[in-house]
Design goal:
heterodimer, A: about 900 residues, mainly alpha, two-stranded antiparallel sheet, two-stranded antiparallel ribbon, B: about 450 residues, alpha/beta, Alkaline Phosphatase, subunit A, 9-stranded mixed beta sheet, globular
Chain lengths: ~900, ~450
């Protein structure tokens, strides 16, 4: 570093040198003269501090734009190219100088003469002698770097790794797991007992506990085979399988995978990811009356094992896919409800902002749910971490801009936001015939409702004026007679309005009474009439538009030939094809990781919706690739993959690993020492099977199943909870809140069929970490708080279920109390109670009940009633117990 | 940091007869202190623990102003901004906008407070205003998350959870970390979660900011059919079954469940008592404006503080004044003014202010300019918060923003610094309060944070 004065001297001499050089050149070319005298000094003085290579080096570069080279200006920054030579009107730089949209330099606008200089300069071709590379400033990863990032390299099936114990694996998966365990000096746990395995499979595959009959049946099959194998003593190593045991286990898995409850369980996992809800949420919690069709479509798709690539294509572009039957067409139409279910800002009164917000929600959805990327981050700037430039975001935005979401009506009867309403998708045998008249009817209702509301508020305005006049009249000095005359006149007007309002109400009612026959309705999406590309919205601002970006997909995942999207197509179908192309590096990986997570409690990538730079790296990269390739090779079949995974030895492990044998482990106390003797506290390497807490739906369903109160059949469409309401009158949650809250108690169907009203989840859902329906959820929270304990200890619904179980047990005259206790253990825990446990329970059941005295009841409870109370309180203990809430 | 030199699991296993009535009897702050001094006695994860060094504050009341209150209209007067109102601002299409309300000097300290907060102004000599606050993110959810957990990218334990982890709590019958009127939407629950710390350090949530209530409570607090004796019997059997699982070598979550049931049981008795304000005088109710939601919540905060709750958070929403600044600012200020003043006064009178740290502020501040004349944008580069009570200078202003209020330029305090300072006041070294998770030692302040020594007494 030179000393202060010599440094200054150096700068000055360099400056002089520069001037000398430029002065010589200026004479040669008038364009150069203009640039050097009028343009360069301004750029240096006002722009370089934030927009130059030097600024970039100091980390001060703004908007990824450097204007100190010609290349930099042409390349531009986040708002696209800074200028178009010869075309001032298309040059962002000039807009910025004019404070039109952008404002540069910030603070004070340059004098008009200077701006005119720039305009002339650009019009004359923007002559610029400044050579040099533009600074390729990317805060995140460049696209080329991105293509070398692990998750953007297409998966290849790796060779099976070498392992020491070749007898352990039953599936290639086990080779990968065992190899890693070996590296960590870990060994797998022994297999779980058949009963444990049966319970685990029932919960994981269908989300219900086995009934006593099912438990006995399958245990006999599995144990019988196991015993036979052991008795033959063919191999002293009991961890080795017998072929017969395997085939019985496989039969059990087949039985469960074929159950209609499989779709309810696995469909719900997907519903988490796609933020499924039956209402809009936010400040206008409008009901989505037809959302359930999408929910049922998802459940059905998992039951029919629709290949995942097809499943994605249907949801993104089902309306554009060929259909061989009316049913298939409807199914595919319903599937696009995926795009329409998001939460919308119905209070937003700027149409463009509203529209771009809806599009943003769709992009974020596709990104999170299928790609495992936070594409939405590129809305306002190039992605800060991932190789997703803003342009890619707007390429996708163009596709959704050319797509019309069909979610039906926003808040009814409000003029300011009436443009929020959309059509619904007609389905059913008469969809073509009944659709148009049905939609016209909805429009008519909206119009009548608006007229009615307007009349009501006009009337109310006069009512308010009358009230005011009556007050003013009392003031000293008021001309009473004049006021009275005014009031009389206004009251007459009110009477007129009464008639008008009445007429509007009658008209509305008449229209409703004469509703045309309706087709079925579904939420969905369709192509917009006007197909258009989207302009870059600088910093996400709808008023600050940059370059147009042709509709398309992410550059980091592309292959040739890269066909442009035809002019008359939104590009949704092309997007769907791109997402599900075998060459796509993310789709299969992201999905198999989700399946893995649901079966093993933890994803191979622990950030299932972020496979980007900020996301976690896979714990078993080769296994993930193996599964992705295998999944695609096997026709993207969810059922097949689930089946194979649960038959692996890895899945069948018992819970006691080496870690759990240590009796003094305490996470809080010995956290720092933990790593010394527990190399794998989070079970990253899967050396055992930690117990897993059941999700809230499973807890609720299991309670009802054990209590005998669960209705296992799905509700018929006309029986869905929402069918009770008039979708026109009761359009928002707030209008029928009191009716909604008892839903959880009234409903006896499985939890997946409970309405998901955004912001007002059933108490139990809220307390036990249900997935927030506000945005895609990939991993549910797992909190343990006293409020959950209080719910299980004191809630009336829980007690009613315990009572139902108690009644059920007591009504079985063939059993004595010990038999009843044993029966509860079988039903709830899928195991036999020990003698000690039975005795402990009997002792509890025989001790006196301490009931709250009920002042309303005059006669003391009978012995029978007390007995039931005691059993109720015992059954409640079962529901509240850790063993019931965790699955080994 | 070695907060628990014994195995909780061993204790849980060894108690054969259940927790019984010793737990029911409740452990007052004093008794709990005695309990912990007999170090041979086992205790749960919430038992009081010794801090790293002598603390100035024993508990925290955090008054969270969700939405980002304007510093230019509360505690950071900007005469130049007022003078230049109408001139172009730094933000696009925005014009400078001065405060509609005057500031006056108050108390012996002459601390400047806006006229919208006349009662708070009377407490000026208790306040330590931080005018140089700044944080990393300018969006509400992220900034709120960072304010609570230090991180806006990852799920991390809340400040209150770290506090409990470091210090335990003084009353074993109440949750050690209570959030009144919590933010529950948009990932709000994360703000109060223990994340990877043991579940016992999560906040208990009273009410919901979506539906603010004068009587925020936890549902299902009373059993409709069993007496306390009957329920204790029931719980004893339940816990015996749960402990059986521990004997088989279950994981730490079962311990969490067992503790959660015990706390729930004790809360049934203790919580309604603390929350019953009937014993408060009419004067007190009036002073707090406790017939209104926020006043009641501040009164509850004081009652919880008295009862030995370690970390109490109260949320007031909404301060996100993009529009209607001119009407909403007076409305919000009126809503918080009396209650907060009463809280400070009351704590002082009861001798609690000396060892209670009161923290006031939002996730960020607001811009000095706006495209409208009736609103302000988000500003994470410069804003104000204040502290009062245990260990901070009173009637003191630290830091400054530029002449308009765009950015903190002097005495800058980042969210991490604030966290480090709060822990310091509680006797905890933010660099030593670590938790090993996933093979790494985590702390609240990540690798950052500086204790703001300038404001310590």
């Amino acid at each position: 570093m030179p000393s202060g004065s010599s440094y200054v001297a150096l700068v000055v001499s360099l400056g002089v040198l520069c001037l000398a050089v430029t002065d010589r050149a200026v004479a040669a070319d008038p364009r150069l003269e203009h640039f050097e005298k009028k343009i360069r000094p301004v750029l240096v003085e006002h722009c370089y501090s934030c927009h130059s290579v030097e600024a970039a080096k100091l980390g001060k570069l703004k908007a990824a734009l450097a204007v100190d080279t010609r290349a930099g200006l042409l390349k531009g920054g986040e708002s696209g190219a800074a200028l178009v030579p010869g075309k001032p009107a298309e040059s962002v730089l000039l807009d910025a100088l004019k404070f039109d949209g952008l404002e540069m330099p910030p603070g004070e606008q340059l004098p008009p003469a200077v701006i005119a200089d720039f305009e002339k300069w650009i019009a004359d071709g923007a002559f610029d002698p400044r050579e040099g590379e533009s600074v390729a400033v990317k805060r995140g990863m460049s696209i080329d770097e991105g293509r070398r990032f692990w998750s953007f390299i297409p998966p290849r099936d790796p060779p099976l790794p070498a392992i020491k114990d070749a007898t352990w694996p039953s599936d290639p998966v086990d080779h990968f797991i065992l190899a890693k365990l070996g590296e960590q000096q870990l060994t797998p746990a022994t297999d779980a007992e058949p009963r444990v395995l049966i319970r685990r499979l029932f919960y994981d595959l269908i989300g219900l506990p086995p009934t006593v009959e099912q438990l006995n049946e399958w245990e006999e099959k599995l144990t019988g085979e196991k015993l036979k194998a052991e008795s033959r003593k063919l191999n002293p190593d009991t961890t080795r399988d017998s072929a017969a045991f395997s085939s019985q286990l496989s039969a059990l898995v087949d039985f469960l995978v074929a159950s209609p409850h499989f779709g309810e369980r696995w469909g719900r996992h997907w519903l988490d990811v796609v933020r499924y809800a039956d209402s809009n949420g936010r400040d206008r919690n409008v009901y989505y009356y037809h959302a359930w069709r999408y929910r049922d479509y998802v459940i059905d798709a998992f039951n029919r094992d629709v290949p995942f690539d097809q499943f994605v294509r249907e949801q993104v572009a089902g309306d554009l896919l060929p259909a061989e039957s009316r049913e298939q067409r409807d199914r595919q139409r319903v599937a696009t409800g995926y795009l329409a279910l998001g939460s919308k800002a119905f209070e937003e009164q700027k149409p463009e902002v509203f529209r771009m917000d809806v599009i943003d929600e769709q992009i974020e959805l596709v990104g999170r749910s299928v790609l495992g990327l936070s594409v939405g981050c590129a809305r306002c700037h190039d992605h800060k971490f991932d190789p997703i430039p803003t342009a890619d975001y707007y390429a996708l935005a163009g596709i959704f801009r050319s797509t019309e979401p069909l979610y039906g009506y926003g808040p009814r009867g409000i003029k300011a936001t009436a443009y929020h309403h959309t059509d619904l998708q007609p389905i059913g045998p008469d969809a073509e015939r009944l659709g148009p008249s049905g939609l016209a009817y909805f429009a008519k209702l909206q119009e009548l409702n608006l007229a009615q509301n307007t009349a009501r508020s006009d009337r109310y305005r006069i009512v308010r004026r009358v009230a005011a006049a009556k007050l003013d009249m009392q003031k000293p000095g008021a001309d009473k007679a004049e006021f009275e005359a005014d009031i009389a006149q206004m009251e007459a007007e009110i009477k007129d309005w009464d008639v008008k309002v009445k007429a509007h109400e009658t008209a509305l009612q008449t229209a409703m009474d004469n509703a045309p026959p309706m087709p079925g309705w579904a939420m969905g999406a369709r192509e917009r009439r006007q197909i258009e590309d989207c302009k870059i919205h600088v910093r996400g601002d709808t008023l600050n538009l940059g370059d147009i970006v042709p509709r398309g997909t992410l550059q980091v995942v592309s292959w040739s030939p890269n066909q442009p999207i035809a002019k008359d197509r939104s590009g949704r179908l092309e997007l769907a094809e791109w997402l599900t192309d075998r060459r796509h590096p993310l789709t299969a990986r992201v999905y198999v990781n989700r399946i893995w997570q649901h079966l093993f409690g933890r994803g191979l990538v622990t950030t299932p919706d972020d496979f980007g730079v900020n996301g976690a790296r896979p714990s078993h990269a080769e296994l993930l690739d193996h599964l992705a390739v295998r999944f695609m090779n096997h026709g993207w079949s969810t059922k097949r993959l689930v089946r194979e995974l649960v038959l692996s030895r890895t899945y069948r492990q018992g819970e006691s690993g080496k870690l759990n044998q240590d009796t003094t482990r305490d996470r809080a106390a010995f956290s720092s020492q933990l790593s010394a003797f527990a190399p794998d506290p989070d079970n990253v390497y899967l050396s055992y099977r930690p117990p897993r807490r059941v999700e809230v739906e499973v807890l609720r369903d299991a309670i009802m199943q054990v209590a005998g109160t669960l209705d296992q059949a799905p509700p018929l469409p006309e029986q869905t909870f929402l069918a009770k309401f008039n979708p026109y009158r009761e359009d928002e949650y707030r209008t029928f809140q009191p009716l909604f809250l008892p839903a959880q108690i009234e409903h006896r169907e499985r939890s997946v069929y409970l309405p998901v009203v955004r912001g007002v989840l059933p108490e139990m859902f809220q307390l036990f970490d249900f997935a927030s329906p506000d945005r895609p959820t990939s991993v549910r929270e797992e909190s343990i708080v006293p409020a959950q304990s209080l719910y299980l200890m004191n809630n009336a619904w829980v007690i009613s279920q315990a009572k139902a179980l108690g009644e059920r047990l007591l009504s079985d005259a063939a059993l004595d109390d010990a038999g009843r206790v044993a029966s509860v253990y079988r039903r709830a825990f899928a195991r036999e109670a020990t003698t000690a446990e039975v005795n402990r329970a009997l002792q509890y059941l025989s001790s006196p009940e301490s009931l709250v005295s009920d002042a309303k009841v005059k006669t003391p409870p009978t012995a029978e009633q007390l007995r039931l109370e005691r059993w109720t309180s015992f059954c409640q203990i079962i529901f509240a117990s850790a063993e019931f809430r965790y699955v080994k | 940091m070695n907060p628990m030199p014994f195995s909780r699991r061993q204790m849980l296993r060894s108690v054969s007869a259940g927790f019984g009535y010793t737990a029911l009897a409740g452990i007052t702050a004093q008794a709990a202190a005695e309990e912990s001094s007999k170090s041979s006695q086992p205790a749960g994860p919430l038992a009081p623990k010794k801090p790293h060094f002598a603390p100035k504050a024993k508990r925290v009341i955090f008054l969270c102003m969700r939405g980002g209150p304007s510093h230019m209209e509360t505690f950071d007067p900007k005469p130049k901004l007022l003078a230049d109102t109408g001139k172009p601002g730094r933000n696009k299409n925005a014009k400078l906008l001065g405060s509609k309300w005057k500031f006056n000097k108050h108390g012996e300290s002459g601390l400047e407070v806006v006229d919208l907060l006349p009662e708070t102004a009377k407490q000026a000599d208790k306040l330590c205003v931080l005018r140089g606050m700044h944080t990393d993110n300018e969006n509400h959810p992220q900034a709120l998350e960072q304010m609570h957990t230090g991180s806006f990218q990852f799920i991390r334990p809340s400040l209150g959870s770290w506090t409990l982890y470091g210090l335990g709590t003084e009353n074993q019958d109440l949750p050690g970390f209570i959030s009144i009127n919590p933010l529950t939407s948009l990932g709000g629950l994360r703000y109060y979660s223990s994340a990877f710390l043991p579940a016992a350090y999560s906040a208990s949530l009273l009410g919901d900011a979506n539906r603010p209530s004068r009587n925020p409570t936890i549902g299902n607090l009373t059993n409709p059919r069993l007496t306390a004796d009957g329920q204790r019997q029931q719980l004893d059997l339940l816990q015996a079954m749960n402990r059986d699982l521990l004997k088989q070598g279950e994981d730490a979550r079962v311990e969490g469940l067992i503790e959660s049931y015990e706390l729930a049981f004790r809360m049934q008795d203790a919580l309604p008592k603390v929350m019953d304000v009937a014993s408060e005088s009419k004067a007190t109710i009036a002073k707090y404006n406790a017939e209104e939601t926020f006043g009641r919540q501040c009164l509850l905060a004081r009652r919880f503080a008295e009862a030995g709750v370690r970390f109490i958070e109260v949320t007031h929403t909404d301060w996100d004044h993009h529009g209607f600044l001119n009407t909403l600012m007076p409305k919000n200020c009126t809503a918080i003014d009396k209650p907060i003043a009463a809280l400070l006064d009351d704590l002082k009178e009861r001798g609690l202010l000396d060892d209670t740290l009161v923290v006031w502020g939002g996730e960020f501040g607001r811009t000095p300019d706006d495209a409208t004349t009736d609103g302000r944008g988000h500003n994470n580069k410069g804003y104000s918060m204040w502290l009062a009570g245990g260990g901070v200078k009173a009637g003191f202003v630290h830091g400054a923003t530029d002449e308009y209020g765009y950015e903190a330029i002097d005495g800058k305090v980042h969210t991490h610094d604030l966290h480090a300072t709060i822990l310091h006041l509680l006797g905890l070294d933010h660099e030593k309060l670590t938790y090993r998770y996933g093979g790494r030692d985590f702390r609240l302040t990540d690798v950052k944070g500086r204790v703001v020594k300038e404001i310590l007494t």
